[in-house]
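Subject: Interface between my chains keeps coming out wrong

I've been trying for a while to get a sensible model of this assembly. When I model each chain on its own everything looks fine, but I need the whole thing in one frame so I can look at the contacts. Pasting all components below, labels as-is. Any help appreciated, I'm running out of ideas.
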Amino acid sequence: MQIVNLSIFLPQLLVPIHPLLATATKAENAPIVLTAVLLSLVVIYIASKIGGELSKKFDLPPVLGELVGGVVVGASALHLLVFPESGANASDSVLMTILQMIDNLSPEAVQSIFESQSEAISILAELGVIVLLFEIGLESDLRELQKVGYQAAIVACVGVVVPFVAGTVGLMYLFHLSAIPAIFAGAALTATSIGITSKVLSEIGQLKSREGQIIVGAAVIDDVLGIIVLAVVASLAKTGEVDIFNVIYLIVSATVFLLGSILLGKFFNNSFVAIADKLQTRGKLIIPAFIFAFFMGFLGNAIHLEAILGAFAAGLVLDETDKRKELDQQVIPIADILVPIFFVTVGARVDLGVLNPAIPENRQGLIIAAFLIVVAIIGKVVTGWAVFNQPGINRWAIGVGMIPRGEVGLVFLGIGAASGTLDKPLQAAIIIMVILTTFLAPPFLRLVFKQPVEVEEVVEVKQPADVAG
Amino acid sequence: MQIVNLSIFLPQLLVPIHPLLATATKAENAPIVLTAVLLSLVVIYIASKIGGELSKKFDLPPVLGELVGGVVVGASALHLLVFPESGANASDSVLMTILQMIDNLSPEAVQSIFESQSEAISILAELGVIVLLFEIGLESDLRELQKVGYQAAIVACVGVVVPFVAGTVGLMYLFHLSAIPAIFAGAALTATSIGITSKVLSEIGQLKSREGQIIVGAAVIDDVLGIIVLAVVASLAKTGEVDIFNVIYLIVSATVFLLGSILLGKFFNNSFVAIADKLQTRGKLIIPAFIFAFFMGFLGNAIHLEAILGAFAAGLVLDETDKRKELDQQVIPIADILVPIFFVTVGARVDLGVLNPAIPENRQGLIIAAFLIVVAIIGKVVTGWAVFNQPGINRWAIGVGMIPRGEVGLVFLGIGAASGTLDKPLQAAIIIMVILTTFLAPPFLRLVFKQPVEVEEVVEVKQPADVAG
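Reply #2:
Try treating it as a single job with all components included. I did that and got this:
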């Protein structure tokens, strides 16, 4: 407090020149930053649990509820959790106002604490998405993928290329967006959610059908493609310009990085198991695994791709070891506490107010949102007609099965929002696209598999509470 | 990059006035901050694992190795991990120099990334110590404590009061330190390490002896006392003055907070179990537990005590539920990845160079270190003579058994260093005190239990590799 007050008597000029003064203030604020971080985490966890459980009750994927929970506590509604990147100040944050009352802080101190807290939560969210991708990597089975083969690969490629091209070109020529945000938004349309798709398929008993196998295989492949696309697009956003050689370099380096680490991983696997077997102290499996995952993440960032690409590659590699199950078991609680931070902050960063139809200036944003949703749906439905040599296959089912977007789409949104590439209406449009495709896919899928009535009944009989609720 | 360069053309004055400019730079640096955090975590994990495993090999507690690993990578030796609070700049950090080469950054950008990275690692370390205390709380059994009774309580109180008073008074009157740092350093001498003590006792087969039971009981009680003392002392350090009413208020509020939460916890227990049983989505046990722990931590901070006191109370409360074992299981991997960040950064923050005996100005610091070590040992050895009504008891064994300091002493050091209360020589003196008491206790304990030769042989026969190594 003393030093904060002292700074009032100093000319403003002195503050940035004497870094020691700034550091002293920071050290003094440190316990309050921790208080703010703890309170933010409490808000995040409560939002994620209430949202997740409500989703589950309505038979929707919990991740959707976590996202909506984030929207509720964030910039759109309660303002408990807001971020300075969107132009918010400490006074816009209800949480900061609470802290200011408790600790009787000066406005400058609150602003500094607000920025430190936001940065800490952002880093935790980024560690969350890294752990999420590491876990997805651990759960993706490379051998299974090879079995589904060409059909799934073609469906995946069509399902990546069509929405990406249609989205980007449409945004640039119909809505006159500049190239980088258009490419980013187009890319956010590419990746089907494995989790949501496979859950719905298993609920309607179609997971092991020909269509189900192709859908799941394609969803896994387009996740990988999506992560490569993200690495390329995020890197373009950093330099701020689209240079064809740079694009080629990025695509090649992302592919080489991923394939190279999988190939090298086959050798590394044995040493990893040998090291983990030798260690005697606590964390003997999880710490070497995290050293590997974080180092790969660092490498991914260092070669100007994305940390999550490295973490995903690390997961794919360690999936091949004997330790897989034990590791999976230990990653689960870590993911449980870190991943919700990512999904909730993605939701919290978005201000749905920018799409309020009552305000005339918002029309453009609403039209863009509608456009993205149409492209997102049609761009995936057409994939059903990419299947060949499969007489009698249900092409509608495959196309509709590919519709739901989820985790990876949100990763695009999170990175685009944090880097400032996506403006507010575009962020809101993408989050609505993710929410709507996820909401619509389950009933559509039941419809095209032509068993809507029976399934509804089974669900109702199983959970009578839902009928009342 | 563009905006960083732009700031050169602007008068220095403008930078703090236009927060949007600063934010833009921050957003641009964000991916590099993440790269820096990932690389720091890789360094921290490697240091903790190498240190921990080497300690284990030499039959010492792993936490000591993690601490020494931190010293090696930190300000004392490799300079991979340094912190701005100690006056270090980005150019002092080897890790930042590596990043600067990879990303070709301007000196201003590197400094800003360095500060953000240090802040993120500090928050992760603080979350680590919160999880650590939550876990210690989960593992402390209140009913066991009640059994050991008065003897242990008296040993604990003597073992807290004697080193605290002797240390504080000695530092103030012999070495002319001002009150706050003297009290902080004195308080750092109070808490015996449960983990280290009980491990050594079990190795020499004395855990269930009368002496062993009193030692372990007293170690648990003085951990609790130590955490209360820490909450009080850290709060004094924040206000910067010792006011007798404030001290009384703090002691009362810390005790009431701890006892109150345990009593209220008895009611809360059932609702916690009921909630956890109702939840269906991932993290249904760990997320409610962390909401509770973090909220208690927030409360602890909000009433100007410490977050760790709240986390410890939360652990004690949840220890009483049926979910205890399941929860313990899930907290372990989370603690495994967060707690080492705390111990390694505590070691890394300390610059042992300030005790280099070759430099004459360091003599004072060295003498203080020697004084603290003597007080730390004698202050605990005398506790043996506090035992009454126990004819034939080995008083030396009890006194020596209380010597090793560990986690809680390091928590004092970490908080004192981060808040700037402890100057560099005092930090170095405390870390040497913790290391030496932990090193010395095992052989001393074997000596006073009068079975040095046999035990050594058993250990050698069990682990023949150690003799060669």
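Reply #3:
Confirming on my end. The longest helix of chain A spans residues 19-57.
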